[in-house]
Design goal:
It is a single chain. By secondary structure, the protein is of the alpha/beta class. The protein contains ten helices and twelve strands. It has a single domain, classed as Rossmann fold, CATH 3.40.50. Helices cover 41% and strands 22% of the residues. α1 runs parallel beside α2 and α4 packs parallel to α6. GO terms for molecular function: oxidoreductase activity.
């Protein structure tokens, strides 16, 4: 698969590197062209340059930008993005009095929906924002004997299928969570998990599987 990346930060590097390892072709685009070229060399991408070059290259295009910058950048590229799958990994977060805070208005408001409005002919998918960038640096990430589950939200069936194939190629399990009207829930979940880590806790301990409870097998029978 050909994938363009908008951005030159840590998520661009981690996901871009994971995709190169999985055998995909990646091109990096950034306003700082020198940084885009340096990142491309570092992860083994086919090249780096202007954002428009990355968009034109990719069947799918990753938005790996700060949430505050993502909407205007995507809006400026709306024509180029028409028909392409737009992968949104942004987390709308800012420091708050009690830890990280969500900056969107609620469950039905999300950066993903705003991107869809900014580039209405693009096929937006909310995905890859739940995990810290360090997770994507692992080869075929798995935990406690199971491959990593990657939740995503998409309105377009074809875009969802492409995303599921991409996730599977990374050795992970795609988890379809509904349409873009649920993307705000994924963004809020990411901020919640970051807040748990910020406080010194473990987010995975908050969501144990019911199957792990004593007597769960007997109850199911």
């Amino acid at each position: 698969m050909r994938i363009g990346i908008l951005g030159t930060g840590s998520m661009a590097a981690a996901l871009g590197g994971a995709w190169v390892r999985a055998g995909h072709e990646v091109r990096v685009g950034g306003r700082d062209v020198a940084a885009a070229r340096k990142l491309a060399v570092g992860i083994g991408a086919v090249g780096g340059g202007e954002p428009t070059e990355a968009v034109r290259f990719g069947e799918a295009v990753l938005v790996a930008l700060p949430a505050t910058a993502a909407v205007p950048v995507v809006g400026s590229l709306a024509g180029e993005l028409a028909g392409r799958v737009l992968l949104d990994c942004t987390v709308p977060m800012a420091p708050g009095a009690d830890g990280p805070a969500l900056t969107t208005a609620g469950a039905r408001d999300s950066v993903a929906r705003r991107l869809a409005s900014a580039a209405p002919a693009a096929r937006v998918v909310k995905v890859f924002g739940i995990c810290h960038e360090s997770i994507w640096s692992l080869p075929r990430p798995s935990f406690e004997g199971a491959p990593l589950g990657v939740p995503y939200c998409a309105d377009d069936q074809g875009a969802g299928d492409l995303t599921a194939d991409l996730v599977g190629s990374m050795g992970c399990v795609p988890v379809h969570c509904g349409g873009l009207d649920r993307a705000g829930l994924l963004e809020a979940a990411a901020v919640f998990a970051i807040g748990v880590w910020w406080s010194g806790g473990e987010a995975r301990h908050v969501f144990p599987s019911p199957a792990l409870a004593p007597g769960a097998v007997d109850d199911a029978e």
